[in-house]
Amino acid sequence: MNAITTLLESFYEDTTPKRGLPADAYKDVEFWRAECASVFTRNWICVGFAHELQAAGDAVPVTVAEHPLLLVRNMTGQIKAFHNVCRHRCLTLVDAPKNVGKLIRCPYHAWAYDLDGQLRAAPHFGGVNEHEADGFDKSKNGLVPVRTHVWNDWIFVNLDGTATEFDTYSATMQARLDGIDWDNVNCIGTLDFGEVACNWKFIMENFIEPYHVQFVHASTTDQPLEDHYTIVDGNCLGSAVDLGEEIGTAGSLGVSSRYLTLYPNFILGRYFPDQMGVYLNIPTGPGTMMQKRALYTTEGQTLTPEAIEGLKKLWWDVHREDHEMTERLQLGRASTVSEAGGVLSPAWEDSVRAFQELVAQDVTTVEQSNRGE
Ligand code: FES
Ligand SMILES: [Fe+2]
Questions:
Q1: What residues does the Rieske domain cover (predicted)?
Q2: CATH classification of the domain holding 103
Q3: Which of 174, 291, 297, 300 fits a 20 to 30 Å CA distance from 85?
């Protein structure tokens, strides 16, 4: 039996209540590699915010599943994604967000690509002032494109090109966002949490279970457990709270809200009546990830700078409370006690289990395809 299948045996045991994924799913390099080859390759992965690429030539590098990618806004205003790798000797082209002008120029030997990825210059490749060479076809040495879809402010890629069309893929989530006038959605700020020292799945699971809210966020939110419920709807998993009226006091959150995730890494939080937050979650290794959050208003309203600062502080505090927990979840995986995973609440963590089953299915496909099934 293959290693991943063996690893998942305890997860699939018929226990009541259900177990979580085993510890190795959160720390083992082989499991991470299997996720890179499946979860992050065959699905639509959120990799960036369109508002971070305002002008033609704006370029943002991002590494997904160990693939260095480059997001670029081209001359006609479209956002494109390419493998961030020069076709000459294959070094990474752009290593920090910047405006590249009209050409993406490799720093090593000055090959230059236009914003649609075409190779425009390979100076002196055939000798002094010889820019062509026998058998060398510039048109076949452009940047390698990656399938991309921009949905509102969010840039998605599908590395292997096999995922269903984005609108089909995200249909269950989109159906739950009825009533939003997307033309009135404005980004009012971002928070950059930098690196969080935990496996990416702990962050996703944290958003799709409401169980921890009353304990972890006792000082920042005012949302009683009994008003919460979980959402399990195909690849849209989440948690929500419906309150009859706003009960938050100044500086705390006490509104009806929904956290919807689109498997595997996209999270959208909707806070009634008129706010939204979207999370960019970039896994960087078995035990690390990067997180950013963009804040939006949904009714086209403008907020004072003080109000925006207040919201940013609230969300910074809320998510730092979450990160402290997810980093401790990671530390707990060093113990033999966590080998077979914990136990999941049948009432509050069925959504977590559903998320984990999607991961387990995806990683298992790697071994099946290795076996030629
Ligand atoms: S590696 Fe890019 S030009 Fe040589
Ligand atoms: Fe939380």
A1: 44-157
A2: 2.102.10.10
A3: 291
